[in-house]
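Recap from last week: sequence in, structure out.
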Amino acid sequence: MTTSPLERAAESFAAELARHRTGRGLSKKQLATMMGFDPSYVSHVEGRRHRPTEDFARRAEAVLDASGAIWQRFREYDQLRQAKGAPTHRDLPPTGQWLPPGTGLVVERETATLTHADDGYRCLVRRQLHNVGTEPVTRHLVRVAVDRWPDDPGRSNRHHREHPLTFSELRLRAYRDDGISREAMHWRAKHDRDAYKEIWLLFENADGRFPLHPGERVEIEYSYQVGREKWGLWFQRAVRLPTRHLAVRLDLPAALDPRVWGVETSLSADEGPLRTPVSRHDRAGRAVFDWSIDDPPLNSRYRLQWRFRGEPADTERAAAAVQAGDRLRALGVLPRDADLLRRPA
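Predicted structure tokens:
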């Protein structure tokens, strides 16, 4: 019996799905839970008893982080299916670019800059957003996280419990620019934890609302600052929305002789070095480091880390004093000028 091209395409999709699932070490039940489907449905698709749907393919692609392979197999199958019968109208993403189910926003370009200043670190993020969904977008979630000593989680957790990150110190500012006008954006806290904040940037201010309607594009900009006593020697970007281009910049004092390197992680791979080098150029006493990537996989993380080889001796002593103080507080030993010792019994 001859197998039709449509049947072969369905088999190719099922094989691609199974390959990525087993490569991730997931059972069919685990994958179904992550995708929001019944386990029997995943089993039937892999067993070619059910044909794949567009929604199923998008969810599988997003969850398994398959670099477009699952989506490509579905497109091949769907093109043959439509050629065989009457095509149904739908707005598919451009060839080679899949979008997870329910996608509303796509980041066409993100540029994130971290600057070492006298009073700490200042971060500026610009995102060019495109609403490819069917509903107006009225808010956008951002996250600010600190980790003073990422290689020593216990020490970092103690430090941030005693010195929590606060909204007031962030001095968060946000703006929306559609190329015609620049509007300040109000914001609202979503999560408030010692070491991180999640914040809704609202497409509104005291003068009115300016939602991002389907098909529209806009650039948003937000900035914040964190003291060096809370910010570690790293800067990480996480890809939480489909992103076309991501660029990261570090602006550090050249006098401190910074050495910078980078690592990346994803749902399907352990931590490893960045696939392309970080470039450096010096100007006006500053060492500027740049790195970028096109079409980063969803849920991937990219971290630039650094070390100051020319750190002044007094800064090193101050850092050592902070570390010693942390160790004493962990043992219950308080300095003589501690507020707790001044309180009446």
